[in-house]
Structures are given as structure tokens and as C-alpha cells.
Input
Amino acid sequence: MRKKYVCLFISTIFIITIISEAYAFPVDIENIEKNHLGTVAYSPFLTYNSFNRKNDEIIDIIQNINEPLYLSYLENITDFGTRVTGTPSCYNAGTYLYTEFQNMGLAVRYQDWNNGGYQDRNIEATLPGVDETSDEIYIIFGHFDTVSNCPGADDDASGVAAVLTAAYLLNQYSFNHTIRFVAFSGEEQWMLGSYKYVEEAVQNGDNIAAVLNDDMIGYALTQDQGNKIKVYDKTTTPRWVTNCTINISQQYSDQIGLTVIPSGPTASDQLPFWDAGFEGIFYHEYKFNDYYHEPDDTIAHMNISYAIKCSRLSIATLAALAEIVSSSNDPPETPDKPVGPSDGEIGVEYTFTTQTVDHDSQQIYYLWYWGNEIGEWMGPYDSGETVQAGHTWTVPGTYDILVKAKDTEDAISEWSEPLTIMIAGAPIIEIGEITGGFGVYAEIKNTGSGDAMNVEWKITLNGLVFFGKEKTGTFTKILPGFKPTAQTGLIFGIGPVDILVLAEADGLNPVEKQVSAFVLGPFVSRVR
Output
């Protein structure tokens, strides 16, 4: 029995050790603070010298991360109150975030998801990179959902406010690589929204170089706590993204004023990215919030100055990773509002035109946003030349089409005014139920999502039919879900017959259905 207890004790110690390694519960912070050098580790993505010297544009960005800007976003988010995933308040908060990104002129979309019995949506805004040879994507995110009975000021309106602040400021600059600003729902149910986001990214083959997660970055009670920030990574040994942010904290120490404490792995919305093999880090306050998941997680219990410092670190790191482009020349004028159709159908390519001028350059490139995806830079074109681009939608809906321009020195214009196009679904014509009686009756169904136009039909009876052997007609329009009835009218015959019903609509292949029946005078029976 004693041996069993000894084995059980040893096993317990082993399991605790493994769990501690896996989830980064306390590491030797004092030793790290004294000995970590913050040297940038090798990354296949890093080629930029912002990690070796200060950058004036990054300093400008840091200095513009201030309390009026950050606090306005924080207050707007918390005004929605408790934001439990799948509830109206969470939905309304998502709509607010979408609108804010849209008002900044960013390409924005909802990503609807269904996971673990919950349904909600993530919000993603994109700032395209100007380097046409790069497909690298850098993402900054937080989560806007909360647990019940908790306003979630620190967890995690603090992080989402940082994401909005990043979007507002970085949109005023150009970067070599693409940046995405994402707000997740479903984090409190174990990262449901971010898991679906990563699943889609993997399916799309997105080259996500690194992710930065701001989750709970606004709680500090003392000056010492307010000068430190924990950074979680996928291993206990800091990887290259952690080392990059350490370097940024040191280079811009006068503007940021934080010491980075590498803290190993733990769970939040960056976890699905780690699981998929992507690199990334999780910024978290040094002192864990005493009001975590409680009604008193309010702005009043936050340290806004500390939240701004944490935001400065993550946003400056993002700007350096995405390679901010220094430029002294003026960008092209904002392109004209796209010209093209305002309605259409799925599966059809539509063409749109625009133009702009650049007073510093003779060559211009254009980037189109189709309401559901961003294209690639097209060009070069001559300044003032009218250009065109085509796109095909595969899902019905209303889409805003925008276009922006850049010159040969990568100075980027604002997005144009949007052209809204309504894309209807495609009709699908089927022959429904065929019945008898005094004549033949056949349902012509539209099971698609678009109007079926000029639907021509024909009913033919093959057998001993003396009168009414063939009947034709046309339905001018069949709406989705409707099934008008074609009918022969009066017939006269005797004996078994084969009934063939044909239907054909504009742009669709003909469909047919055949049944057998028995005719006795004007009456049709035994249809099957």
C-alpha cells in the first residue's frame, strides 16, 4: 500500500509539472527581469530595420495613442453592457464595431460562425499591404463578448478598444504587408469564434505571419504593476514575436514605459492560431484583475493610463512587423466612385470602371474591394486613365464596391465612395407534382434564390388522345419559393398515356419530368 501511495504522489507531481509547462502558470519572473536580453530571434518574415533603430512614423503613432481616443472606444463598447455570445447586446456591439471600421474607410466584413451550440459573428477589417510580392498577414485582435452579469470593461473591451485605436491610426499610413483588425465573439465559451476564424484562414491558405492578442490590458494598482506587462507565447522559451515586442519596448521606452515579462503559454484567442501552427503572442496585464468575471469589471476599476501604455506596445509592434512605409510624396487623388451596374445575379461577371490622377507620378496602381473580398493591386496605369475591373459574386446579397489607388512610391489614397450592387440569387426550375382530374396539372417550381424569367412550359400526352394532346404556355416570372401550376385544359382520349412536362427559363437549361396515367374521356387518373 505504501508503494501505491508513493507512486500516486510521484504521478501527481509529474502531472502538475506537465500542466504548468503547458499553460505557463507562473514562471521565474524575477530571473527573467534580470537576465532577459530581448534579442530579436530569427524569423523568415523579418527583413525590416524598425527593430534595429527608431522610426519617426512609429513614434508619431505611439504619441497619438492617447486617452481621448482610446477612452471613447472603451466607453462605447461598455455602453452595450453585458455582451454574452449570441445575445442581442453582443450582436449590437458587433454592429457598432463593423460601423466604426467602415467609417474609417477600411474593407470590413462579418464572419458568421456556428460552433458548440452557439451562433455569432466575428468582425474583420483589412488594411492591404502595398508590397505586391508579399502575401504576409499580421493580425491584431481582442474579444468583445463577456460572461453573464459582467460589463467586461477590462475583459475584454480594453483589448477591443486597442484594436479600434490601431485601426484608426494605422489606416493613415502605408505598410508593406497586410494588416487585419479583428474582434472575436465566443471567447468566453473557449474561443469558439477564433477557432472558426482560424479554420477558414487555413482553408483559404492565408499566410498569417504573426498575431497579436490584446486581452485584459487595463488593470494596475501600483506604479510597479503599471510598468510591467506579461506576454504569453506558445512555448516557455520566448519565440521571435515575443523578442520583437521586447525590442520595441526597449527602443521606444521613453514613449511606452513598459517592461515585457515573457510568461510562457496560456489560453486565449491566440490559442487556435498556435494550434494551427501560426506564431503569435498574448498581451496581458501584469496584475490579474481582482474583478475578473464580476459585475465590478468596470471602467472605474481600470487604470486607463496603463491600458494606453499596453496599447502603445502592441500597436507599435504591429507597425514594425507589418513594415511601415516612409514616404514624403503625396498619394494619388481619391479615385472616382466606381461606375457599373447596381444590380445583378450570382455567377455573372460584371465590369466596373474608375480613374484618378497623381500629381507626383505618371503611374498608378488600383486596388478593388468587392464587398466580400479584396482583390490584388492592378497596374500600372497612366495617371488619369480610365481603368476597369471585373468581379463575379457567388452569394446573393448587397455589396459595397470601393477602390483605392497608390503611386510608384507606395503612397496610398483614401477609398473611393462606394457603389452598392444588389446581387440576386440564381433561379432553379424544377417540375413538381403532376396530377390528373379533368385535364393534367403540373407544378413549375422555382427552388432557387433568384427570379426565374420567361418560363416556357409544355405538356404532351402520348397515347390515344383525340383532343388536347399538347398544351404550351409561359409564366413571365416565378419568384423564389413559388410553384404556379401549368394545365392542359379540356382533353379527350381513352386508355393509358405517357405525360411529358417540359419547362425552360431565361438563362437556364430545360428540365423535364415524365409520368404515366390513364385517360377515360375528359378524365385523367392513376397518375404515377
